[in-house]
Amino acid sequence: MSDQLCGYGYLFCCCNGEEILPRDKVMKSLQKIFSLNVCSFKNGTMGAVNGMMPDGNVDLTSLQSQEMWIGVTYFLAALMIRQVLICFVLIFI
């Protein structure tokens, strides 16, 4: 899910989230989300699709997983900026 780290991102609004999850695990997750949910969806031009299967196909098991939500996409981009993945975020712009 493209929003799997939203709770982690909100922690930075009130405390240091790095104490909760190891940075290397967060980076690996963000890279996977970017690769599957952003780049594999509409050639990376439409934002982050909510659900993606490991094989790179959109998860068709529910309507929610097939949608792209602009708020989740912006929050994901903000978290990538926070985690110094600016090279990924430039594709959103």
TrEMBL record:
Gene Ontology terms for molecular function: beta-glucosidase activity
Q: Which domain of life is it from?
A: Eukaryota
Keywords associated with the record: Membrane, Transmembrane, Transmembrane helix
The record lists the membrane-crossing segments as 68-92
Q: Where is the Glycosyl-hydrolase family 116 catalytic region domain?
A: 1-83
Q: Fetch the Pfam families from UniProt.
A: DUF608
Protein name per Swiss-Prot or TrEMBL: DUF608 domain-containing protein
